């Protein structure tokens, strides 16, 4: 059975173990972080997505062949005034998605700065994915695919271009991360069908295997277009 990421609730839990991982999204404002999460968790896209204030928390699961990965997703605000809060969210994270806009070179430069920050300050074993969003606007591209792929290869990052608007590669992105995360049991853990909480500060989410999860988010008035 192929690994899948489903965005609707329902279906019995996997017979295998459930691993919970904290995942954080980082990147400039208006690159589409919130839209990526909304597409992954709810299967929705809003043309004018309100800006995140601080951070929003959502959950979603990805079912692999013998295990289920439950993501606890922190979608952080991209505005510079919130940058100082970022360590609060990426501290203890096992995975990070750094998002840039393929039509905005400066957002790619900022993504590189986030990579450097995580490499210095985050969990040394963190899985980092670099994501070029708004792939549906390829005719307005300023960041070449080959340039970003070469940088990701150099830094040992996962890399995909995505479109939250069309849904291209969104599930594939989270699936690639789920596959790369280590599925190791804490000492003394045994048995089938149990949850292995990899993040000590994890908040238990609702729903079964591959079920949708949700969270709350504060939003500033006046949304910015997100793809």
Characterise the protein shown here:
The structure is a single chain. Residues 1-15, 186-209 and 211-227 have low confidence and may be disordered. Strands 1, 2, 4, 5, 6, 7, 8 and 9 form an eight-stranded mixed β-sheet that branches. A two-stranded antiparallel sheet has the order 3-10. It is globular, with a radius of gyration of 17 Å. The longest helix is centred in the middle third of the chain and has 17 residues, at 105-121. The chain has helices at 33-42, 86-90, 105-121, 145-155, 170-180, and strands at residues 4-5, 17-27, 48-49, 55-63, 67-76, 95-101, 127-133, 158-161, 195-197, 224-225. Strand 7, helix 4 (145-155) and strand 8 form a beta-alpha-beta unit. The protein contains five helices and ten strands. With 227 residues, it is α/β, with parallel strands linked by helices. It comes from Hypsibius exemplaris. It catalyses: GTP + H2O = GDP + phosphate + H(+). This is small monomeric GTPase. It is found in: Early endosome.
């Amino acid at each position: 059975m192929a690994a899948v990421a489903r965005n609707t609730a329902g279906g019995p839990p996997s017979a295998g173990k459930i691993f919970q991982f904290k995942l954080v999204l980082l990147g400039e404002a208006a690159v589409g972080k919130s839209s990526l999460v909304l597409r992954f968790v709810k299967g929705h896209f809003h043309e004018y997505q309100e800006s995140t204030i601080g951070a929003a928390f959502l959950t979603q699961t990805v079912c692999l062949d013998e295990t289920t990965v439950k993501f606890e997703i922190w979608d952080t605000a991209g505005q510079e005034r919130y940058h100082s809060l970022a360590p609060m969210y990426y501290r203890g994270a096992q995975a990070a998605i750094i998002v840039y806009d393929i039509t905005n070179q400066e957002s790619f430069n900022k993504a590189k700065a986030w990579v450097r920050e995580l490499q210095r300050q985050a969990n040394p074993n963190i899985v980092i994915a670099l994501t070029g969003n708004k792939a549906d606007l390829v005719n307005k591209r300023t960041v070449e695919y080959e340039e970003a792929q070469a940088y990701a290869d150099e830094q040992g990052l996962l890399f995909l271009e995505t479109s939250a608007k069309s849904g291209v590669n969104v599930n594939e992105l989270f699936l690639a991360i789920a596959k790369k995360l280590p599925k190791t049991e804490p000492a003394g853990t045994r048995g089938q069908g149990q949850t292995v909480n990899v993040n000590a500060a994890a908040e238990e989410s609702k729903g079964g295997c591959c079920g949708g999860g949700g969270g709350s988010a504060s939003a500033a008035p006046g949304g910015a277009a997100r793809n």
